[in-house]
Design goal:
FAD/NAD(P)-binding domain; Enolase-like, domain 1; 3 domains; globular; binds flavin-adenine dinucleotide; alpha/beta
């Protein structure tokens, strides 16, 4: 039986904790988190801020009390300030300033990520808000409730920026969406796929400023203007959503890291020091599309990696199969899902790829409530291995992407999909469905 110390108790930490407590009773589990809540579902922030759900009450699925009731010792509002990996001890500071000294046999780091805040003039002004913690969402929500907040700039058109732009419009405020790339969601989708999302955003009142770089904020105490390389705009609030960096300071130069500072792990989630595991947004992850280690900050990856580390820390032997970075977004009724690499991302990684596209109604034309679905499959030009897929529609076609996720994970070729047995029923799809048609029309 081991003394396990778990630092960080959001999605990765909660998954690790539940696995240890449910599957390996008898271990001594101590959990430390500097926040006052755990398991906060950031994915619900925009839904709540935009009043698509009535309150934030359901945005937590666990608590310190729930983990304590299963036998863990939990210290909330307590920050781990240092780790001695040789002595296997950690030091933490509680809310009231006292110090805790903890020793461990096994350590799981689940310290997550922090929003990237650009160091540009005026970025320390009031009413400029990032959205990461539950408390950040609460502050954004409170600001949007003030009558003087009329125009809000969102910086970054990744999935969080796009979702918040929708929320701002739904709250009756003007949203200006700034993005250095020429489209929204540029990290996950090719331009031909995002065109309809960009149109949907524009049609619903989001003012799009793509291909525009933010240079500074203006204001006196609070933000009142934003300056880009193309213009100068009056605003009352700004939301920073340009991405996340791994929160890996506790690695302290002792653990190996990858390019962006994420803690390097192996398939068992073990770091360069045996018995020390890193999971979720603070750790590297293996991409089956790239066939290399990379960084993909998603709750789904956090949960799976937490489970893997927990089994291994308790004496089991489990390897992560790697990920595809499968993701989805639904904004103003327009849905997009993707897995693996876009053509753009594949080329950036130096891969020689081809694409095949197909668009068709989801169901036969005689069926009501029927929308066009766009599908793009990206595959390796030589091996023909499927490297990614993207789908977009007003239809809820989201489940279709899971098959492509498995295809990327298993190295399935585009040719294998040509005659794949796909059922047909008018209620759901077409006899000549878009997956078959896209695969058949692959070069
Ligand atoms: C607005 C928003 C929407 C999102 N939507 C989605 C979505 O729809 N789907 C999806 O898959 N992902 C989504 N994500 C991403 C997802 O939330 C993250 O990938 C996930 O939270 C990572 O979980 P984690 O446990 O690894 O890290 P984190 O959530 O960052 O948690 C890390 C924890 O560690 C604690 N901690 C850090 N340092 C210390 C320390 N020194 N001492 C003690 N405690 C410490 C922190 O307090 C925190 O509780 C979204 C994120 C945001 C912000």
């Amino acid at each position: 039986m081991a003394k396990i110390l778990l630092i960080g108790a959001n999605h990765a930490g909660t998954a690790a904790a539940n696995t240890i407590l449910d599957t390996y009773p008898g271990n001594e589990l101590t959990i430390i988190d500097r926040n006052d809540n755990i398991s906060s579902l950031g994915c619900g922030t925009a839904l709540w801020v935009g009043r698509q759900i009535p309150s934030s009450d359901g945005l937590f699925y666990s608590s310190a009390a729930a983990l304590e009731s299963k036998g863990a010792t939990v210290h909330m509002e307590t920050e781990v300030t240092g780790i001695d990996f040789d002595a296997k001890t950690a030091t933490a500071k509680t809310k009231n300033g006292s110090e805790l000294h903890l020793d461990f046999d096994k350590l799981i780091l689940a310290t997550g990520s922090a929003p990237i805040m650009p160091n540009i003039p005026g970025s320390d002004l009031g009413n400029i808000q990032s959205v990461k913690l539950f408390q950040d969402g609460k502050r954004a929500d409170e600001l949007l409730g003030k009558p003087e907040i009329k125009t809000v700039a969102v910086i970054g058109a990744g999935y969080i920026g796009v979702e918040l732009a929708e929320a701002i419009v739904r709250r009756g405020r003007k949203a200006l969406l700034f993005e250095a790339e020429s489209t929204s969601l540029a990290s996950y989708y090719d331009d031909c796929m995002t065109a309809d999302m960009d149109k949907t955003l524009g049609d619903n009142g989001v003012e799009l400023h793509f291909g525009e770089r933010v240079q500074s904020f203006k204001g006196d105490g609070v933000v009142s203007g934003i300056v880009t390389d193309k213009g100068d705009y009056q605003i009352d609030m700004a939301i920073m959503a340009i991405g996340f960096r791994p929160n890996a300071t506790l690695a302290g130069g002792k653990l190996k890291t990858i390019g962006n500072g994420a803690i390097a792990v192996n398939a068992r989630q073990e770091t360069s020091i045996p018995g020390v595991y890193a999971v979720g947004d603070c750790a590297s992850i293996y991409s089956n599309a790239l066939r290399d280690w990379t960084y993909i900050a998603l709750a789904t990856n956090a949960v799976r990696s937490g489970i893997v580390a927990a089994h291994n820390a308790c004496g089991g032997s489990i390897e992560s199969p790697g990920v595809q970075g499968s993701n989805g977004i639904s904004v103003f009724g327009y849905n997009m899902v993707s897995t693996g690499l876009s053509e753009k991302a594949a080329k950036k990684a130096g891969l020689d790829v081809l694409t095949t596209d197909f668009a068709a109604l989801q169901k036969p034309a005689f069926m009501p409530d029927n929308h066009e679905v766009k599908l793009r499959i990206v595959y390796d030009a030589k091996t023909r291995r499927v490297l990614g897929a993207q789908m977009a529609s007003r239809e809820n076609m989201s489940m279709g992407i899971h098959m492509f996720s498995l295809a990327v994970e298993d190295g399935v070729t585009i040719d294998r999909l040509k005659l794949l047995d796909i059922f047909f029923l008018p209620h759901f799809n077409q006899p000549y469905n878009y997956i078959t048609m896209a695969a058949l029309s692959a070069k």
